[in-house]
Amino acid sequence: xxxxxxxxxxxxxxxxxxxxxxxxxxxxxxxxxxxxxxxxxxxxxxxxxxxxxxxxxxxxxxxxxxxxxxxxxxxxxxxxxxxxxxxxxxxxxxxxxxxxxxxxxxxxxxxxxxxxxxxxxxxxxxxxxxxxxxxxxxxxxxxxxxxxxxxxxxxxxxxxxxxxxxxxxxxxxxxxxxxxxxxxxxxxxxxxxxxxxxxxxxxxxxxxxxxxxxxxxxxxxxxxxxxxxxxxxxxxxxxxxxxxxxxxxxxxxxxxxxxxxxxxxxxxxxxxxxxxxxxxxxxxxxxxxxxxxxxxxxxxxxxxxxxxxxxxxxxxxxxxxxxxxxxxxxxxxxxxxxxxxxxxxxxxxxxxxxxxxxxxxxxxxxxxxxxxxxxxxxxxxxxxxxxxxxxxxxxxxxxxxxx
Length: 403
Description:
The protein has one domain (3-402). The protein has 16 helices and no strands. It has helices at 6-34, 37-53, 55-73, 77-104, 106-112, 119-127, 133-143, 147-200, 211-241, 244-262, 265-280, 286-309, 311-319, 330-352, 358-375, 380-402. The longest helix is centred in the middle third of the chain and has 54 residues, at 147-200.
């Protein structure tokens, strides 16, 4: 499939990703309104930890997308079926292992995050049961370039999380309800994606050597872990270093800022299988990246401009008059997220064409960020500045690697 389809498929992914992000932000908005500042800080800190701990699922999705698109390029659908059967059993086992390990570590995690209830962490661990197997299914949908199916599933899991989360919180379950909704939504969508793939992959399984997938997955995991940690570590450390009220305010700032990170995310998702397939067919793929960069800058830049021009209005729309203290930091944090969105696109491009050495550079960027956050963290302004510098470093390193 040539790069002329990028605009159409990017539009599909953009719409579905925007729908998913809309439901995610509505979830955050309603949690911020229904819970106290302190409870909201706890919930968002735990959600940020979920994003980092479950990054293995993102690596699985990336690896599966890469190799599914590779096999699709050579029309080896029997091997795709074999890879799906293999991935299903292994990712379920990984989820069980992570659930057990994090549950056992729940007292230590609770202590670090200043929580008085270990069951919050146990509920977080329950989500990990699905955090590998569902991304694997999503990776197969993406690798097969079933963009509508992928986008629908992606939006549905966010919608279900929203509806179930609000319902459970209104029923009096508080933070428990906000966390439990993640696992319930993932279970429903997991069943749906299984049915879709079962219908799409009817070929008899054809075995093949998976050694190259393991080596690729290891570096993809390192890259995805480093990038995801960079975009969520600040919220976790805010919960550790700041007062409960300030941590809640920083969580609200991060929720708004992530709009700029996630708004163009569908472009990277649509680009990945296309550049990967063209790479396997030895066709030109740099023009796809150029278009993806243009779309990302246009969308992310427009959102950052809104942060600069209307910070008070955006905060009021999202949270009412609950978080006026975050207005001065809106543009800086938004600019940081724009830089991270560019770094993510460039990292995804390199992984799609099997340039896995990009993992080492994004890991270096993470090390620099950790040093920054550990050195200066006494206020919301300090954390915001550290994120802006981290975004610059990550983007520069990705551009140097591309050159």
